[in-house]
Amino acid sequence: MGHIDHSLEPARLDLHNITVAYNGFKALDDLTFQVPHGERVAVVGPNGAGKSTLFKALVGLLPLRSGEIRIHGKPLGEHQDCVAYVPQREEVDWHFPVTVYDVVMMGRFSRIGWLRRAGKTDREAVWYALAQMGMDELAKRPIQDLSGGQQQRVFLARALAQEPHILLMDEPFTGVDASTQESTMELLEHLEQQQVTVMVSTHDLAMASQRFSRVLLLNRRMIAYGAPGEVLSPENLNRAFHGQVLMVNGVAVVDQCCPGDEHEHGTYPGEEWHS
Ligand code: ADP
Ligand code: MG
Questions:
Q1: SS3 labels along 56-82
Q2: 27 pocket-lining for ligand 1 (C-beta < 6 Å)
């Protein structure tokens, strides 16, 4: 009881027939997949595919209409604090009056508990994470004063300070400069050495195929899941993106990264929710 049998090496993350709905609208419909220990998964799909919804369900921010999520073979609630989540930029209130240090310390909250003050170990973890992301000198600055790239590094530091077993990052490569993209990728490589399981949503198909061990292709339902070379076939991409895939010299390019695009294409149910 309570002992993990490493000879079985259970999947870190199991989703069984997950459905998530907003009012009547099923944003995720009957998803089933497993992410084994230490894998790095890219989540790819058009705007409105349910990528953000999936991540929010995985951290318990959205209720499941049906299905079950297991972490280390246990129901989600029991292992909630081993999942770190870096939300999509647009979903964060950057004007919230907190310092860089405070944001990173929030990553420790589930460990600290609400009734206990931060201890030496917590402060050390926060400073270590800040230094790791090159943000220690900005620790006392309000988060709103930072550039977009710096803000993202702070959120990565927060995820690091949490010492997660599973890290979820929602579009960390969208809307940040190249050097932040590179340090995000370096962080992923660092976490891979520590056997952290990682899921990242991205519109960059080249990055998904070159730097991830698996790809989940999503459009409300699961289109395909597995090795990048098999998943990112022209047939699968056309099914996920409804033919809005451009082939350039044999390389698939999707034009979906900017909010607003979807209104021009206008093929996804539920898009009216975006203002
Ligand atoms: P993605 O991240 O892949 O762009 P989302 O998970 O944000 O997709 O959204 C999936 C679908 O759910 C979209 O159709 C979107 O309009 C809808 N949706 C997302 N959040 C809400 C919400 N809070 N209320 C109602 N509908 C929502
Ligand atoms: Mg999203």
A1: HHHCCCCCCCEEEEEECCEEHHHHHHH
A2: yes
Local confidence band at 51 (pLDDT 50, 70, 90 cut-offs): very high
| 49 C-beta closer than 6 A to ligand 1 | yes
> Is residue 96 lining ligand 1, measured as CB closer than 6 Å?
no
Ligand 2 centroid, distance to 171 Cα (angstroms): 7
CA 70, 169, 184, 43: dihedral to nearest 10 degrees?
A: 90
Confidence of residue 123 (pLDDT cuts 50, 70, 90): very high
Can you tell me the distance from the alpha carbon of 63 to that of 76, in angstroms, rounded to the nearest whole number?
11
Q: Among 29, 91, 254, 273, which residue has the most ligand 1 atoms within 8 Å of its CB, making it the best to mutate?
A: 273
Q: How far apart are CA 216 and CA 223, in angstroms?
A: 8
Q: Is 26 in the pocket of ligand 1 (CB under 6 A)?
A: no
50 lines ligand 1 (CB under 6 A): yes
Considering every ligand atom shown, identify the ligand nearest to the alpha carbon of residue 20 and give its number: 1
Cα–Cα distance between 192 and 72 in angstroms, integer? 18
Which of 173-177, 198-202, 258-262 is predicted least confidently? 258-262
Q: Out of 3.10.20.30, 3.40.50.300, 3.30.70.20, 3.30.70.120, select the CATH number for domain 13-273.
A: 3.40.50.300
Question: Mean pLDDT of all residues in the chain?
Answer: 85
Q: For position 236, what pLDDT does the model report?
A: 93
In the predicted structure, residue 5 carries a pLDDT above the cut 80: no
- Domain boundaries of the chain, sorted by first residue: 13-273
State whether the beta carbon of 22 lies less than 6 angstroms from ligand 1. yes
